[in-house]
Fold this protein.
Amino acid sequence: MNLDQLKSDWLGRIAAAADEAALEELRVAALGKKGEISLKMRDLGGMSPEERQVAGPALNALKDEVTTAIAAKKAALGDAALDERLKAEWLDVTLPARHRRVGTIHPVSQVTEEVTAIFADMGFAVAEGPQIETDWYNFDALNIPGHHPARAEMDTFYTHRAPGDDRPPHVLRTHTSPVQIRHMEAHGAPVRVIAPGRVYRADYDQTHTPMFHQVEGLAIDRDISMANLKWVLEEFFSAYFGTKVRTRFRASHFPFTEPSAEVDIQCSWEGGTVKVGEGSDWLEVLGSGMVHPKVLQAANVDPAEWQGFAFGMGIDRIAMLKYGIPDLRAFFDSDLRWLRHYGFAALQVPAVHSGV
Ligand code: DAH
C-alpha cells in the first residue's frame, strides 16, 4: 500500500471539492465508518506487531492530515460563500431614497392648532364638549327658550326618539356655545378657555356646509369688560394673520350676551382678492358680547360676583381667509388633489413665533 499515493489522492480531491456538500461526501468516503482510511486502520489488527509499528503511526498521520485538510477546506468554502452573499446583497446606501407620498395636515386641523397656540399664549386653556347635545345645553341654558326665533334660525338637526318617548330630542350642537355652560358648571369661575370643535346646521352652499367648525371663547372674572374683549381679539387676529389687524364692533343681538357685538376685521378687496389687515373694507368674522347674567346663572355662576366676555368664530372661515381657499365645500370632499394642494407638512408646527 502506498500511503503517499493515498495522501496525495485525498488531498487533491479535498482541494477540488466544489461546495460543502461535496466535501462532506469526501469526509464520509475517507473517514466514515466504511471510509477508505478507516478500513485501512481496521486492517492494522491483522498485522504483525512489527508491521503495525510502522503502519500505525503512518496511517494516524494520514488521518490527521486529511482531517485537517477537510477542516481547512470547509472554512475556505464558508468564507467564499459569505463573500458571494455579501456581493449579492450589496447595496448602495448613498442612492437617493425612493419617493413616497406622505399625507398632509388638513387646513382645519392646522388652523385649529394655530388658534389654540395663540390663545394659549394669552392664558386660555382648551375646553371640550359633546357634539350630540341636549337641547338644554344647546339652547335653554344659553337663554334661547323653546319659542325663541333663534332656535328656528339655527337649522337644527334633531336626533330620533322612539314613538311614545316624549322627552325632548337631542340635537347635533349648532354652535360651540354649550361648552361655555358645561365648562362653568364643572369648574366655576374664574374662566379663561377656548372651545374649538365641530358644529352642525342643515345648510349647504359655497360658504355653508352641514358640518363646520367653530371656536368659542370665554373669559369670566370679577371685572372683565368689552375693552378686554377688543384687546384679546385684536391681539389674536394680528398674531393669526401676521400683521396688525384692526377690528370694528357693531351692535348686534344674541340671546346669550348683553350687550352683543358682531366683529369685523379690516380688509381690502383690491385686485379681486381679499387682504386682511389693510384697506378700508370690513369683513364680519365673529359674534361676541358680555355673557348674559341668565347664562351665568344657568351654569351656577353668581352674576352678582362674576362677569366676562364670550365670542364664537368660524374656524373654516378664517382658514379660507388666511390661506386663500375659495370654496368651503371642498374642505370636506376628501379630494386628494385638494388635500395635497392646501394641506400642511406634518412638521410645520404652528407656534406664535413660527410664522405659519
Ligand atoms: N353661537 C353663535 C353662533 O353660532 C356665535 C356667538 C355669538 C358665540 C356671540 C358667542 C357669542 O359666544 O358671545 O352664531
